[in-house]
Every structure is written in structure tokens, then in C-alpha cells.
Write a structure and sequence with these properties.
The chain is of the alpha+beta class. The protein has two domains: 137 residues, no CATH class; 163 residues, no CATH class. It has eleven helices and ten strands. It has a five-stranded antiparallel beta sheet with strand order 7-6-4-3-9. A three-stranded antiparallel beta sheet has the order 8-5-10, with no helix packed on it. Helix 2 packs parallel to helix 7, helix 3 packs antiparallel against helix 4 and helix 9 packs across helix 10.
Length: 332
């Protein structure tokens, strides 16, 4: 069994440069008890106590450390964002294997755990054979003091243009077949939908929006035509968690889009609408009306393909309400 280091020696062990080399330290004093509760002992198969190593990461402190440097322009791919928005863990895992960030992150946690056991006076190569090593890696990943590569890359990822369906799995003509090609019937359908969403169709702004969508949007309302709320913002607002969450859109832009032939129109409305993001699943996408899509990956033509709009024009005030506030992938 390796002889434990003294407190002063342990302090010197933790005094490293970014590349892992030790630096000179003029003086190191032994720890003095000030009434702080001692770490809970965690013994490995050789009788070594790993408790102090776990305590470094389990106790919240003002010292935040970035587990791995992330370049300022590193960001998630559209495929990964789309997978997160789908709420399908199996799809997330599939796409994650193609993202270099995850391999880097695993290596970074492994290296940080190695540094931690070195500070205990243990040999990292031998310590990796202990079950506690994997537990320590997990403690580092979950630590409130750890700035993970996932968080850093996520924060670097710019706002995305996204859409959500508002007809909840229905076709626009399900309750009025004449709306397939009759302008008056199409106006009636949108008026009813606006009321259902909580938008007053009688206000001047909303009345004009309905008329613009009908007069300038798709002529034939077949199954490829949908009415969506469209906005630009952090994609994480719409990432599913363990429970459902609600998105409230203030004065949202609505787009009536034909994803089959690439036609459509958009208009800004007045009022607030709410949409629900479903809880994520182990092996399936969320229903179309319970999730958001990247505009250009929603299937067929996106609004960006049709109109080439300036994304910043769709920045919308969105309020997120959820039962469980949790990053979808940090604890994966």
C-alpha cells in the first residue's frame, strides 16, 4: 500500500501548471482544522482513502475550473442540435459518437481524475483498475465546480432558427375540407386556430396577419402545408428534459409553409401563445406538436430555403417554464 502524503506534500502535489508539471512553491503549511467537517472516507481495494479526492469536486466552491479548453468558435453541428431537439436518447447517442467534443470530454475527465489520485499519492495507472476511479470521473462530471466542454461548446453555439407546429398533429383542412382551396374557408380556419392559441383574431394586427398568410401563402392546403411558430434563439430553450416544459412566445412570427413545393408566407402576430415540449424518450422522437425543429431540418423546404430571411429578424421573447431544469446531455 502506498504511504499517504502529508498535508504539505499533498498541497505541493496539487501545485501544477496547465500541462501537468509541478511548479515551485516557496512554502506549504499543514492543514489546520477550523471546524470544517472531514471528508467521508472512501476506501479502495488496497485500503487507500479516496475521500479527499471526492471532496474536491462534491463540495461547491467559488473556484470554477474548465476541465478542458474549448476554442471560442467550437460549436455543435446541426445534426447534433437536431438530435437533442428530437428528445430521442438513441438518436442523441448515435450522433454524439460523430462529435469530437465527446471524445475530448471523456479524455479530459479521465485526465482530471488521474491528477486527483496523484494528489493522494497514488499511481494513476494502478488507480484506473479501481471501481472508485469511474465514480470519481462521474463526480468530476457532475461537480458544480466543473465547467464541462459540453457546457462551453453549448454556450458557443449561436442562436438557431426553429419552428414548432401549432396544429397538433392535424392537417389544416381536417375540420373544414373546403379550406383545401377556398380563401374564405382558409381565413375561418386560421381565425379558429388563433382563438385556440390565445390570439385575438379581431385585432388589426392579427386580422392583417391572417389575411396576409391566406393571400400570399400556399394556394392549396394539402398535407404538406403547416402553420408553425418560427423564432430565433438558444436551441437549449427547446431541448426536452425529464419532464414537459412550456414555451411562451410573445408577439410571435407565424409561417404558413408548403414543405413540398417550397412556397409560403410569414406574418408577425400580437399576443402570447404557449407550446409544450414533451419529456425526452429512450428510443423515439417526440410527436411533431411536442417538439421543436431546426427550420432547415424540419423535413422538405424550410423557411430559410424559401425566403432566405435575416435570422435576427425572428428573435422572439420566449419564456421557458419547466419542472426540472437540466441539461439534456451534461449527465449522460
Amino acid at each position: 500500500m502506498t504511504k499517504p502524503l502529508t498535508s504539505a506534500q499533498a498541497a505541493q502535489q496539487s501545485n501544477r501548471t496547465n500541462d501537468g508539471k509541478y511548479t515551485a512553491k516557496s512554502h506549504s503549511e499543514a492543514d489546520v482544522s477550523l471546524g470544517v467537517e472531514a471528508p467521508e472516507p472512501r476506501f479502495d481495494s488496497q485500503g487507500n482513502d479516496w475521500g479527499p479526492a471526492f471532496a474536491e469536486y462534491e463540495v461547491e466552491s467559488v473556484r470554477q475550473h474548465e476541465i478542458m479548453h474549448v476554442h471560442y468558435n467550437d460549436e455543435f453541428s446541426e445534426d447534433f442540435i437536431a438530435a437533442e431537439l428530437s428528445g430521442d436518447w438513441s438518436e442523441i447517442d448515435r450522433v454524439r459518437e460523430q462529435e469530437a467534443h465527446w471524445e475530448w470530454e471523456n479524455d479530459a475527465y479521465d485526465q482530471e481524475a488521474a491528477y486527483a489520485v496523484e494528489r493522494l499519492g497514488l499511481e494513476p495507472d494502478e488507480a484506473r483498475n479501481e471501481e472508485l476511479f469511474d465514480e470519481l470521473r462521474g463526480a468530476i462530471a457532475d461537480s458544480p465546480n466543473t465547467i464541462s466542454p459540453y457546457k462551453s461548446v453549448r454556450d458557443n453555439t449561436p442562436s438557431q432558427l426553429m419552428r414548432m407546429e401549432v396544429f397538433e398533429g392535424e392537417n389544416l383542412t381536417d375540420h373544414n375540407e373546403e379550406a383545401y382551396h377556398d380563401g374564405d374557408a382558409q381565413v375561418e380556419v386560421l381565425e379558429a386556430k388563433f382563438k385556440e392559441l390565445g390570439l385575438d383574431p379581431s385585432t388589426e394586427i392579427n386580422r392583417d396577419a391572417i389575411e396576409d398568410l391566406v393571400n400570399n401563402g400556399p394556394e392549396y392546403w394539402h398535407e404538406g402545408v403547416s402553420l408553425d411558430v418560427i423564432w430565433s434563439g438558444p436551441y437549449t430553450d427547446a431541448v426536452p428534459g425529464n419532464d414537459e416544459k412550456s414555451l411562451s412566445f410573445n408577439d410571435p412570427n407565424m409561417v404558413l409553409i408548403d414543405s413540398f413545393n417550397g412556397s409560403g408566407w410569414e406574418a408577425q402576430t400580437q399576443g402570447t401563445i404557449k407550446r409544450t415540449i414533451g419529456a425526452r424518450s429512450e428510443d423515439s422522437d417526440l410527436p411533431g406538436d411536442k417538439r421543436a425543429y431546426l427550420d432547415n431540418l424540419a423535413g422538405g423546404y424550410g423557411w430559410g430555403d424559401i425566403a432566405g430571411p435575416m435570422q435576427s429578424a425572428y428573435e422572439t421573447e420566449v419564456e421557458v417554464q419547466e419542472k426540472v431544469v437540466e441539461d439534456a446531455m451534461v449527465n449522460a
